[in-house]
Design goal:
With 470 residues, the protein is α/β, with parallel strands linked by helices. Helices cover 49% and strands 14% of the residues.
Length: 470
């Protein structure tokens, strides 16, 4: 079944790549033939068609990673659509970066916008059709997964009820296996097929795709034999792990030299998505640093001409899990501003262990404008390039603030800090400290590449409007 699923994943990714290539040609034809005002400008067919191999190289791994065939049975159609948006968004950003670096591809941004819009519509349609086809097939009895539930208590009954409530998942509970001999022949309308000691004979005599262990805590110590039976026969096993109360952590199974480790982590664990996030950080920070060079030179000249001191301000900040690094910014305050902070503590306008002041007398005239336009943050792109920070992530605090954190607040350090996050696009200094911390934890708990893209899009108007900046 695993090899069949991988084959289906590869086939559907290649199919969507063909759809993308077809959309590319249609977009090129429309751009050349139609005289729309929004698409006016020079059009060079050679440059556009020469870009198609780059599209194929960029899109194929994204279509594989965010493909429909690789999704779980329990994934909703809306999630497939979000993954289509992620493919187009990430691919579009990487494609823009590629055309910026390889200047021989003189392709208009209007054509790219047309292609990406049509590609999103086409991928969304294919995924809706594929999901509808799978749902129809499962309701007619095809692509079924037969599940045996180990346990007969409330946890097992609730789990079986959840599976039975969703016909679109195509999961059929064939029966229960009791932890110990019981007098009942049926539980929740399904047969009790025996005890854990008879699991091997049950698996030999029936079609079972998965065994879901929903047993009591005491029985967990005695499932090693049953787990070994499933492992040797080749039946997938899952554990219903609601034994530890309401934990925010996600649960993963890892291995170290063959020894399985059950891992609880509050931070994202998808290595492919995290790698894509890091690649995105490197590409965007490198391109942005190159593009912002003239702005940095002008800002540096203004800082030097209007106040004494260095152009760049370097400060120790706390990064992921408390790692200390040097954060770089353009200097916006007078020289010796740190020594003056103690005299201004009474005028702090933020609650909690953080200092924010709207009309800070230490800020220079040039520095006020740099802050208003967020130009002072540009050197942090170097921190992103180094790996200290990410484009999107909780803002890195100074170590002194971290020492005053409550226990739940320190969890915001569990992910790589960033230049922008939910707080930056939600009012910044107009938000209370507690709400700021809650926003950072909401970002960590709900992180995805699509969420990063949304925050980046919301950051642009927030910076242009200077909302909440000081």
């Amino acid at each position: 079944m695993k090899s069949r699923r991988l084959l289906a994943s590869a086939a559907f990714a290649l199919f969507e790549l063909l759809v993308t290539a077809g959309v590319f040609f249609v977009a090129a034809w429309l751009r050349e033939r139609m005289r729309l005002d929004v698409l006016r400008g020079d059009f060079q067919r050679g440059s556009v068609l020469g870009l198609l191999p780059a599209v194929a190289v960029l899109w194929l791994p994204l279509l594989w990673r965010f493909g429909v065939a690789r999704s779980e049975r329990t994934d909703r159609v809306s999630l497939h659509l979000l993954r289509a948006i992620a493919v187009v968004a990430i691919g579009g950003i990487l494609l823009l970066a590629f055309t910026f670096v390889r200047r021989q591809f003189d392709v208009s941004r209007a054509f790219l916008a047309l292609f990406l819009g049509m590609n999103l519509a086409a991928l969304s349609m294919t995924r809706v059709v594929a999901s509808a086809f799978r749902l129809h097939a499962r309701k007619r009895g095809y692509d079924r997964a037969y599940v045996l539930v180990a346990g007969t208590g409330k946890r097992a009954r609730d789990h079986a009820a959840r599976l039975a409530a969703h016909a679109e998942w195509g999961i059929e509970v064939v029966g229960f296996v009791a932890e110990r001999p019981i007098a009942l022949d049926t539980v929740a309308g399904r047969p009790v097929l025996g005890t854990l000691e008879r699991l091997e004979s049950i698996l030999r005599g029936r079609v079972i795709d998965e065994v879901h262990f929903a047993v009591s805590r005491g029985t967990l110590e005695r499932v090693d034999h049953a787990l070994r039976v499933c492992d040797e026969i080749g039946v997938r096993t899952r554990f219903v792990l609601d034994l530890f109360g309401e934990l925010k952590s996600r649960v993963y199974l890892e291995r170290i030299e063959g020894v399985p480790l059950l891992t609880f982590s509050t931070t994202p664990h998808d290595e492919t998505a995290l790698l894509a996030k890091r690649v995105f950080d490197i590409v965007v920070s490198a391109v942005a640093l190159a593009a912002s060079g003239p702005v940095l030179l002008i800002a540096a000249a203004l800082i030097k001409a209007t106040s004494r001191g260095p152009v760049f301000f370097r400060q120790k900040r706390s990064g992921m899990n408390g790692r200390v690094f040097s954060l770089y910014k353009l200097r916006t305050m007078v020289q010796g501003a740190d020594a003056m902070k103690a005299q201004l503590e009474a005028k702090n306008e933020m609650d909690g262990p953080v200092f924010k002041m709207k009309d800070d007398p230490r800020v220079t005239a040039v520095g006020r404008w740099l802050r208003k336009l967020s130009i002072d943050e540009l050197p942090q792109l170097y921190n992103v390039l180094r790996g200290d920070m990410s484009i999107v992530g909780p803002r890195p605090p100074v170590p002194g603030e971290v020492e005053k954190y409550e226990r739940w607040q320190r969890r915001r350090l569990s992910m790589r800090p960033g230049i922008t996050c939910i707080w930056q696009v939600s009012g910044r200094n107009q938000v209370s400290f507690r709400r700021w911390m809650e926003m950072d934890l909401e970002y960590i708990d709900n992180w995805s590449l699509l969420l990063d893209f949304k925050i980046i899009l919301r950051t642009i108007p927030a910076v242009l409007s200077s909302r909440g900046a000081s």
